[in-house]
Design brief:
Elements lengths: L3 E10 H15 L3 E6 L6 H15 L3 E7 L8 H10 L2 E5 L19 E5 L3 E5 L19 E6 L2 H19 L8 H8 L12 E8 L7 H12 L3 E6 L6 H12 L3 E7 L5 H8 L2 H6 L3 E5 L7 E5 L3 E5 L5 H6 L2 E7 L1 H18 E3 L2 H5 L3 H20 L7
Parallel strand pairs: 2-3, 3-4, 9-10, 10-11
Antiparallel strand pairs: 1-7, 1-8, 2-5, 5-6, 6-7, 8-14, 9-12, 11-15, 12-13, 13-14
Helix pairs in contact: 1-2, 2-3, 6-7, 8-13
Amino acid sequence: MRYVGGNRLTLLKNGERYFPALVEALDRAREEVFVESYIFADDETGSLVADALARAAARGVRVHLLLDGFGARDFAPRWRESLRAAGAEVLVFRPDVSPWNLKRGRLRRMHRKIACVDAAVAFVGGINIIDDYDTPGQTPPRYDYAVRVAGPLAREVRAAAARLWAQVSWATFRRRWPDFASLRTALNRPPEPRAAADGQRAALVVRDSLRHRRDIEDAYLHHIGAAREEILIACAYFFPGRRFRRALTEAAARGVRVRLLLQGRVEYVLLHYAARALYGSLLDAGIEIHEYHRSFLHGKVAVFDCCVACVGSSNIDPFSLLLAREANLFVDDAGFAEELRASLEQAMETGSQPLARRQWKLRPLPERARIWMAYGIARLLMSFYGFERYH
């Protein structure tokens, strides 16, 4: 991790705060925009962002939109046409998605959710471009976070987006001739934004399949190992490997209070039950587990000793830590960390249920059977794809 100082960071909870801030930044763009999203839904929010991108392109801003070939496979054709008509460029990461192709490489996805405007303002987090209220019967919105970054770190976010844009541009060489002039412009290094004297320190940490395969996991493990008082992690899909579980249990053994806020609702059945096979050993180690039931938990955040915070796109599971392209922001600022911690505390108090160790041991036999069956299938799939060392 390389921490960069002089930034102004704003914690954005849920889409109700994130999307207005994103659209405002897009409407202020003067030179260039990079946006990456795993999902770009055909709904009111998708229309809001697509229109803002089209407006920016129409006034001469260089607009680069990168979507994942699986997550955004239903990206509305009318938006693609309107964006290209306005002058925006749209690329798709690994568009050749097939349910019949079981090669490990086909599982690699672009799961990042970042945006950068004029290399001066950036957004990093876990929020897809989709309505918060897309689940039938769901009253509260999906629970998630993003961070608005103003300052020198925005240029690093821009550099990461430009590198991936260049890689995807070259990967499409066989399908269409790339726009080399646009590619050169994207790879130019813009001037560094002015740093604020009293600004905050943060580091952008990415995960890819080349030089940064374990960077996000290693950053988590570093801060878990350094924690002396408290670790608070909220994660939508939690299925950690041996190293991660060992780090958490060792932290609890040295007196650190370790709390996990995890998904309580069933979203993906296999992962939902397989993850629960790990709960017994974690509870035995003194780790507190809270299941969030108020709505679907989609956040991937953490706070360490009320001093360092993490907000990003990476879950703690094999997909995020071993396959997907992810981007997380680690913030070394006590004020920011305390704000995130207070928000998570409120979520635990108002929307979650703690798991009691004794009650967990007394679960009904049918539930225990589902858990261990799901865990066995998950282990089998991980072995099939060569992830046996992960667990």
